[in-house]
């Protein structure tokens, strides 16, 4: 059976951020840590070796695949910073129109640096994603 690789773990978020080689990217990671923590009210947790997640939800797809995932999160990767939001939320595309310089995939939004984006829109994206997932997958 398929085993999820990205699970919440006891890794230190601060130790992970301190290992980010690029000083500017490390500074951006601390800024994102503040924004995500303040906006969600959740403590930052490591998910897998490289994702900083906030909150969690339990999902189960029609296929039977199920698991736990962070409500929102980010990862300061070597190339770009990955921001993780809910997939399938139509409000995300609307908010991204005024977000600033970014590219996006199915679940991720990629930025080069925090200075390229509108932090108020980032907070709105975080809130929207958390609300969307909490409604889609209510806690029992």
Count of helices?
Answer: 4
Spatial order of strands in the largest sheet:
1-2-3-6-7-9-8
CATH arch. level architecture = Alpha-Beta Complex
- Specify the structural class: alpha+beta
Number of strands: 9
CATH top level is: Alpha Beta
Mean of residue pLDDT? 93
Strand content: 15-25%
CATH fold label: Aspartate Aminotransferase, domain 1
Q: Supply the number of structural domains.
A: 1
Give an overview of the whole structure.
The protein is α+β, with helices and mostly antiparallel strands and 140 residues long. It has one domain: Aspartate Aminotransferase, domain 1. Helix content is 35%, strand content 24%. The protein has 4 helices and 9 strands. The chain has helices at 13-18, 23-40, 90-96, 119-136, and strands spanning 8-9, 44-47, 51-54, 57-60, 66-69, 72-76, 81-84, 103-104, 108-111. The strands form 2 sheets. A 7-stranded antiparallel sheet has the order 1-2-3-6-7-9-8. A two-stranded antiparallel ribbon has the order 4-5. Helix 2 packs across helix 4. The longest helix has 18 residues, at 23-40. It is globular, with a radius of gyration of 15 Å. The two termini are 25 Å apart. The model has no long low-confidence stretch (mean pLDDT 93).
